[in-house]
């Protein structure tokens, strides 16, 4: 049996998702080159940046869950509904469990996470996801959420190969490099490929733009945490 980690090579995927990834390879390369990501593996990322990251991820996941549940209601069949609701439940568990445990491991109070308001990049990203899910087609909404599924899996795999001297950072890495998570991502990618085959050229172009925009927001999310982004006024 081929290990899950060998089946996720993005450039090797056939079908619509493979084409989607090809158009965002420069975005993914910029993510891997970002000092936030490099700081995880060197251990030099500041604790404050990491705490801001998981605080914003807490806010993000709350809206991400709502987005997934909205898509689940629009899904073309129950298999797609089940997949999306399963991932929504996993995201909710991460928001309530993993983040608090990471804070404790850092010697910080988990309640501190709620002291952070929603920062500009987080607000923009989640507003984009919710608006697309509510007002767009199922294909558009799915294309908008897939970068979060997929990029985190690829970044987790990349980071796991390098490791981190910081045990807290390594624990976060492990959560996104696990075979359970990668299997879930593959199922979502297979669903996306199925949906993509039925799209008209016009609908496919719109969904493709949603995918690219979400990928760009992924870079912005890490960059905002690294910069300790605040509202300017």
Secondary structure: elements and pairs:
Blueprint: H1 15-22, H2 25-32, H3 35-42, H4 47-74, H5 78-105, H6 120-135, H7 138-162, H8 167-177, H9 179-196, H10 201-226
Helix pairs in contact: 2-10, 4-5, 4-6, 4-7, 4-10, 5-9, 6-7, 6-10, 7-8, 7-9, 7-10
Overall structural domain count: 1
Indicate the CATH topology: Heme Oxygenase, Chain A
Quick check: average pLDDT?
A: 91
Broad structural category: mainly alpha
Percent of sequence in beta strands: under 5%
SSE string, helix = H, strand = E?
A: HHHHHHHHHH
| Rounded Rg | 17 Å
Can you give me a brief rundown of this structure?
The protein contains ten helices and no strands.
Q: Mind explaining what this structure looks like?
A:
This protein has 233 residues and is mainly α. It has one domain: Heme Oxygenase, Chain A, CATH 1.20.910.10. Helix content is 76%, strand content 0%. The protein has helices spanning 15-22, 25-32, 35-42, 47-74, 78-105, 120-135, 138-162, 167-177, 179-196, 201-226. The longest helix has 28 residues, at 47-74.
Question: Can you give keywords for this protein?
Answer:
disordered N terminus; 10 helices; 0% strand; Heme Oxygenase, Chain A; mainly alpha; single chain; 233 residues
